[in-house]
Specification:
The chain is α/β, with parallel strands linked by helices and 288 residues long. It folds into two domains: 197 residues, Spore Coat Polysaccharide Biosynthesis Protein SpsA, Chain A (Alpha-Beta Complex), CATH 3.90.550; 76 residues, no CATH class. Strands 3-2-1-4-7-6-8-5 form an eight-stranded mixed sheet, with helices on both faces. 47% of the residues lie in helices and 19% in strands.
Length: 288
C-alpha cells in the first residue's frame, strides 16, 4: 500500500519536531509517496521545521481546518492518504494495524484512538469513556466517538466522491460531519480502540479551554448532525450530577482527581454552549 501523508498546521513549532519524528518511525519510507503540510500562515518556525523533516509546505488558501484539509486533499495523488494534526504523537502500532481495515471494500476510513498526555487522571477518564463506548458500540449516541482527523487513513476516491472534507465556518466537528457523510453513503469508518496515540497537552487548563471552545460550536454543529437545536437542559442536568458521576469514575479507575476533573469538563462545555448562543446564529443542517 502506497500512501500520501498530509497535515494542517498553525504555529505548531512546539510539538512538530516530536510529532514528525514519530511519524517517520512508524510509517516506512517505502510506503510513502508524498508528505505535504498545509500551513495556516504560522508566525513561528513551523514551516522550517516541516521542511527539515522532508515535508513539502504549502500555504492554506483559506483559513482553519476545513480549508486546510481540502487544500491538503488537492495535493493527494495516491489511492490512500493519511491525515495528522500537529499535536498528535502517533502510536507505534498504528501503521501495522490501522491500514489493514481499508482492505475491506466497505471501509472508507479508519483511525485509532487518541488520549491526552496529561494530567494522568484525565487520561484515565478518557480510558473509562472508551471502555464504556466499546460496550455500547452499536448505540447511536456512541457513533461519533473516536472519529477524528489526526491519525486517520482514507480511500482517496471515496472522500472525493463525497465532495471532500465538510466546509464548515468553524473548526470543530469537521470529523463528525465527515463521519456522518461516510455512513449515510453506505461506507464504514472503523475505529480501533486498541491503537492509542497521544494527544500532546500541557495540562488540565488546556483541556478545559478545549472543552469550552468545543462547547461554543455546539449550537452550530448539532443542527448539522441531527437537524435539531441544542437542548441546554440535558447539559445542565449532566453538570448537576457530574460530582456523583466523577466520584463513581474516580473509584472505578482508582484516579482520585477524576472526582473534580469530570465536573470541570462538564462546566467548561456548558459555559461554551451558553457563550456560543450569544455569539453565533444556528446554522441550518447541510444536505449530505
Amino acid at each position: 500500500m502506497k500512501v500520501d501523508m498530509v497535515m494542517w498546521t498553525k504555529n505548531g513549532a512546539e510539538t512538530l519536531p516530536l510529532v514528525l519524528k514519530r511519524i517517520g518511525e512508524v510509517i516506512p519510507d517505502k510506503s510513502v509517496n508524498k508528505r505535504v503540510i498545509v500551513d495556516d500562515h504560522s508566525s513561528d518556525s513551523t514551516r522550517e521545521i516541516a521542511e527539515s523533516f522532508g515535508w513539502t509546505v504549502v500555504s492554506n488558501e483559506g483559513k482553519g481546518i476545513s480549508d486546510g484539509a481540502n487544500n491538503a486533499l488537492k495535493q493527494v495523488e495516491s489511492d490512500y492518504f493519511i491525515s495528522f494534526e500537529q499535536d498528535l504523537l502517533l502510536a507505534h502500532d498504528w501503521w501495522q494495524k490501522i491500514r489493514q481495515y481499508l482492505l475491506d471494500e466497505h471501509t472508507a476510513v479508519a483511525s485509532g484512538l487518541r488520549l491526552s498526555s496529561q494530567p494522568a487522571d484525565l487520561r484515565k477518564l478518557q480510558e473509562y469513556a472508551t471502555e464504556r463506548i466499546q460496550k455500547e458500540e452499536n448505540n447511536s449516541d456512541s457513533f461519533l466517538y473516536g472519529k477524528t482527523l489526526d491519525n486517520t487513513i482514507y480511500k482517496t476516491e471515496v472522500i472525493r466522491q463525497l465532495g471532500g472534507f465538510p466546509k464548515l465556518p468553524f473548526s470543530a466537528g469537521v470529523d463528525n460531519v465527515l463521519a456522518q457523510r461516510v455512513h449515510l453513503n453506505g461506507f464504514q469508518w472503523k475505529v480501533d480502540y486498541s491503537v492509542r496515540s497521544i494527544h500532546l497537552r500541557k495540562g488540565l487548563r488546556e483541556e478545559l479551554k478545549h472543552c469550552y471552545w468545543y462547547g461554543t460550536c455546539f449550537n452550530a454543529l448539532i443542527p448539522l448532525l441531527s437537524g435539531k437545536i441544542v437542548d441546554i437542559q440535558p447539559q445542565i442536568l449532566r453538570l448537576l450530577f457530574s460530582p456523583l458521576r466523577g466520584l463513581e469514575i474516580a473509584f472505578k479507575k482508582n484516579a482520585p482527581q477524576v472526582a473534580f476533573i469530570y465536573p470541570l469538563t462538564r462546566l467548561a462545555i456548558l459555559r461554551g454552549i451558553i457563550a456560543g448562543r450569544k455569539k453565533k446564529p444556528i446554522i441550518k443542517r447541510q444536505k449530505t
